[in-house]
Specification:
Elements: H1 21-34, E1 40-49, E2 54-66, E3 70-72, H2 74-84, H3 87-108, E4 116-120, H4 123-126, H5 131-142, E5 149-154, H6 155-158, H7 162-174, E6 177-183, H8 190-195, E7 200-203, H9 205-209, H10 215-230, E8 234-237, H11 243-251, E9 256-257, H12 268-277
Parallel strand pairs: 2-4, 4-5, 5-6, 6-7, 7-8, 8-9
Antiparallel strand pairs: 1-2, 1-9, 2-3
This protein binds ligand C2E and magnesium ion (MG) (3 copies).
The site of ligand C2E has 25 residues, from β2, α2, α3 and β6.
Domain EAL: 24-279
Protein name: Bifunctional diguanylate cyclase/phosphodiesterase
Length: 291
């Protein structure tokens, strides 16, 4: 019903976050000035090559430090940002910040030379019509090589949408890596793999969570890994929390892993400190020295 009233009527949408509608409207208003007021930061979570436990990438994850409400989880405000359109300026900030950080790391630490910087991008951003140009501009401004950038999109964000597919094709031509995030959770995924020029599949955390105890989850994880290999895509397993899960995913042929077992998302200085302290600091030797 709210939808029929058209744009700008976001306050009438039903509540998805357990908040009252007025709270939602307040939050959106507050979110609209949060970039300018410097309330967002990025944390970075290591992505580890399972073959040798080398940290080959990081994923940038946004954090909102609200002046009165405290820390708000992206799971709570990203959906509202998407709904209101604010994801476009917020996402633009996140892309710029992550590329600036990646370039600074490369300058300061030889271990970061080939580090892949993963940036989450919402469907709405991808479809904005200016996204590819923004990426070009940010890479030029920050001097981050295109090979160091990896864009993460979800299946639902790109499903059956020509504009996003076109944007992704242009990004691929430029040499940007493209990861399909939360893979396996959307309604359909297989046809998408043929039309959508991704380089990487990220198996959703929900499959990893019960991979040891639920045979059906393990079966899906196996199929995704085999499919990635058959299509010549890289595979990442998200949400690895135990060594047992890690070992199994390794056996299933996953190339990369990400999860609390290796590290939680951390502020950028933590990674810099680690690289500065030890030459081999991007290595996660078993039993997985934690950050
Ligand atoms: P995502 O892109 O799938 O990111 C992975 C999420 O899983 C992160 O949650 C991360 O902290 C969490 N995670 C990683 N390893 C583990 C683990 O071992 N166990 C558990 N329980 N969780 C783990 P986070 O940081 O709360 O972000 C949630 C989602 O918010 C992200 O999911 C992404 O969809 C979205 N998001 C975050 N930053 C941005 C951004 O800059 N732009 C956009 N559009 N979306 C973002
Ligand atoms: Mg992601
Ligand atoms: Mg994910
Ligand atoms: Mg996820």
């Amino acid at each position: 019903e709210a939808k029929q009233r058209g744009k700008g009527m976001w306050a009438l949408y039903t509540d998805e976050m357990g908040m009252r509608i007025n709270d939602e409207a307040d939050l959106i208003r507050e979110m609209s000035t949060a970039v300018d007021e410097g309330q967002f930061t990025l944390e970075y979570q290591p992505i580890v090559r399972l073959e040798d436990m080398e940290m080959t990438g990081v994923e940038a994850l946004i954090r909102w430090h609200h002046p009165t409400r405290g820390r708000i989880s992206p799971a709570d405000f990203i959906p509202l940002a998407e709904k209101s359109g604010l994801i476009v300026p917020i996402g633009r900030w996140a892309l710029g910040e992550a590329c600036r950080q990646g370039a600074a790391w490369r300058q300061a630490h030889p271990q970061a030379e080939h580090l892949a910087i993963g940036v989450n991008v919402a469907g709405r951003q991808l479809r904005s019509g200016t996204f590819v140009d923004e990426v070009l501009k940010v890479l030029a401004e920050t001097q981050l090589p295109v090979a160091n950038l990896s864009i993460e999109v979800t299946e639902t964000a790109v499903l059956g949408d020509q504009e996003s597919t076109d944007a992704m094709l242009r990004l691929r031509e430029m040499g940007v890596r493209l990861a399909l995030d939360d893979f396996g959770t959307a309604a359909s995924s297989l046809g998408l793999l043929l039309t959508c020029p991704v380089t990487t599949l990220k198996l959703d955390r929900s499959f990893v969570e019960s991979i040891i105890t639920v045979g059906r989850q393990a079966a899906v994880a196996t199929a995704v890994s085999q499919m990635a290999n058959a299509l010549d895509l890289a595979s990442v397993a998200e949400g690895i929390e135990t060594e047992e899960q890690c070992r199994l995913l390794q056996e299933l042929g996953y190339h990369y892993g990400q999860g609390y077992l290796f590290s939680r998302p951390v502020p950028p200085e933590v990674l810099a400190g680690r690289w500065a302290a030890v030459a081999e600091a991007s290595h996660f030797p078993p039993p997985f020295e934690r950050l």
